[in-house]
Amino acid sequence: MEKLLKLFLLVLTFSVPLFGLTYSDTKFNVIKFGAVGNGRTDDTNAFSRAWEATCKSSSTSSTMEVPSGKTFLINPLYLDGPCNNKIINVEINGNLIAPSEPSKWRCNNNACDNWMDFRYVDNLSIIGHGVINGRGSKWWSTMKALKISSSNNVTLSGLTFKDVPHMHVVLDTLSSVSVSNITIDSPGDSPNTDGIHIAGSTNVVLDHCRIGTGDDCISIVTGSSHLKISDIICGPGHGISIGSLGKHESHETVEYVEVSDVVFIGTMNGARIKTWQGGSGYARNMIFERIYSQEASKVINIDQFYCDHMECFTHESALKVSNITFRQILGTSSNQPAVNLACSASVPCTEIVLDSIFLQHNDNKRASVACNNAYGRAQGTMVPQIACLNQT
Ligand SMILES: *[C@@H]1O[C@H](CO)[C@@H](O)[C@H](O)[C@H]1NC(C)=O
Ligand SMILES: *[C@@H]1O[C@H](CO)[C@@H](O)[C@H](O)[C@H]1NC(C)=O
Ligand SMILES: *[C@@H]1O[C@H](CO)[C@@H](O)[C@H](O)[C@H]1NC(C)=O
Ligand SMILES: *[C@@H]1O[C@H](CO)[C@@H](O)[C@H](O)[C@H]1NC(C)=O
User: Fold this and answer.
1) What string of pLDDT tens digits covers the 392 residues of the chain?
2) Which of 86, 87, 91, 205 to mutate to test the pocket of ligand 2 (most atoms within 8 A of CB)?
3) Ligand 3 atom 7: the closest Cα is on which residue?
4) Quick one: which of 23, 36, 348, 375 has the most CB atoms within 10 Å?
5) Cβ-based neighbour number of residue 241 at 10 Å
6) Which ligand places an atom closest to the C-alpha of 130?
7) In the record, which residues are listed under signal peptide (predicted)?
8) Which ligand is nearest the CA of 85, by number?
9) Distance between CA atoms of 313 and 360, rounded to whole angstroms?
10) Ligand 4 centroid – CA 272 distance (Å)
11) Which of 259, 285, 320, 326 to mutate to test the pocket of ligand 4 (most atoms within 8 A of CB)?
C-alpha cells in the first residue's frame, strides 16, 4: 500500500510539470503593474509595463488583463511585438477612457495618430466586454482609437467603442483576421469617424457587429482582398464602402469582397464603391446580398466621380470596376436615385449584376435609377426596373 502511494506520488510530481510544459497561460493584470482605474489617474505607464511583461513572457500563451468594474484613463499607447511565436491575449473587461481635453493628450514623440496601437503581434486576440470611450466630441480629429497593424492571425471581439475622435477600429496590413460582436456607438454628426476601416488586409471575417457613426460603418481600401462581411447593422453612418480608391492618381486595388445580411438604417449610402477620377487599378469580384434598407439614401451606389473637396478635375483614366453582384436588395430609400451606377465615362463598369431588387422610395413613390456607362444584366424581380444598364 505504502509502495503504491509512493509510486503514485512519484507519478504525480513528474506529470504536473509535464502538463505545465505543454500548455501554460500566464496572466498579467494591469492592477499588479500599478494601474489605478479610478478614471482620473493616468494609467498609461502601468499598461505599458503590463504589455511588456505579457509580450516578453516565455509561456506558450500570455494574457494581459484589464479587469472589470474599473475605468482606466489612457494616453496614446504602443503595444509592439514581436512577442516570440506564441499566443497573446488581451482581455479588456474594464472600461478605457481618453483624456478629457485635446490639450491633455500626452503623445509619443508627438505622434498623435493612434490611441491604442498594436504592431507586429501574431496570434493576437483582443476580447472582453469593456467600453472604450474616446470622449472625442471636443475635437473630432485625427486620433484613431484602436489600430492593429502588420500582424497575422488576429481576433477582436466583444468590445464597445464610443465617441472616438476619428476612426474607431483600423485593421492595417493584417492577414487571417476575425472581428465579431463589436458595437460602435458614435453620433451621426461626428466627422470622419469610420467604424471599421480595413486597409491592405487579406482573409478577413467580420460579422455580428452593430455600427452607428458619422462616416462609413465599414470602409475597405487598397490592398484588401478575400473579405467576408455578414450580419451587420449599420446606422447612422455612410454605409459600407469600398474606397475611396484612386485619389491623387494612385494605383489601387480591392477584390473578393462578400457582404451579406446587412441592415442599413437611415444611412447616406448602402453598398457603395467610390473611386476618384484619374486613378488606376480595380475594384472587382464582389457580392452584396441580402441587404435590407430602411430609408438609406443611395442604397446601391457606384460613384466613380467621388470628390470630397470643391475642385475636382475631369480625367480620362479611372479604376476598372467589374464583376459586382447586388442580390436580394430590399427596402426603402430616402433619396432619388436609390440606385446609382455612375461609372467612369472612359472606363465602363462591366459584369454588373442586379438580381432580385425591390426598393421603394419613402413615400411609396417609385424609386429611381441613374446609370452612366454601366454594363451588365438585371435578373429576377426588379423594382424599380433598371432600364439604363447596358445589357451584355
Ligand atoms: C503564432 O505565430 C507564429 C508566427 O509569429 C507562428 O510560428 C506560430 O505557429 C503561431 N501559432 C501559435 C499557436 O503559436
Ligand atoms: C491563431 O491564434 C489562436 C489564438 O488566438 C491560436 O489558438 C491558433 O492556433 C492560431 N493559429 C495559428 C495558425 O497559429
Ligand atoms: C458579445 O459581447 C458581449 C460583451 O460585450 C457579451 O456579453 C456577449 O456574450 C457576446 N456575444 C457573443 C455571441 O459572443
Ligand atoms: C466574380 O466575383 C465573385 C465574388 O467574389 C467570385 O466568386 C467569382 O469567381 C467572380 N467571377 C469571375 C469570373 O471572376
Assistant:
1) 455 445 444 444 444 444 434 457 799 999 999 999 999 999 999 999 999 999 999 999 999 999 999 999 999 899 999 998 799 999 999 999 998 876 777 776 656 788 999 999 999 999 999 999 988 766 556 778 999 999 999 999 999 999 988 899 999 999 999 999 999 999 898 888 899 999 999 999 999 999 999 999 999 999 999 999 999 999 999 999 999 999 999 999 999 999 999 999 999 999 999 999 999 999 999 999 999 999 999 999 999 999 987 778 888 899 999 999 999 999 999 988 999 999 999 999 999 999 999 999 987 788 999 999 999 999 999 999 999 999 98
2) 87
3) 129
4) 348
5) 27
6) 3
7) 1-24
8) 1
9) 34
10) 18
11) 285
Q: How far does residue 286's CA lie from ligand 4's centre (Å)?
A: 7
Which positions ≥6 away from 30 have C-beta within 8 Å?
Answer: 37, 43, 46, 47, 50, 64, 65, 66, 67, 72
Q: What is the CATH number of domain 75-391?
A: 2.160.20.10
Single-letter code of the amino acid located at 175: S
- The kind and range of the H/E element at 334 are none
Nearest to 315 by CA among 246, 244, 381, 230: 246
Give the start-to-end residue ranges of the domains of the chain: 75-391
What is the residue with the minimal CA distance to atom 8 of ligand 3?
Answer: 158
End-to-end CA distance of the chain: 87
Catalytic residues: 238
Ligand 2 binding pocket includes 175 (Cβ within 6 Å): no
| DSSP structure string for 200-237 | S-EEEEEEEEEEE-SS-SEEEETTEEEEEEEEEEE-SS
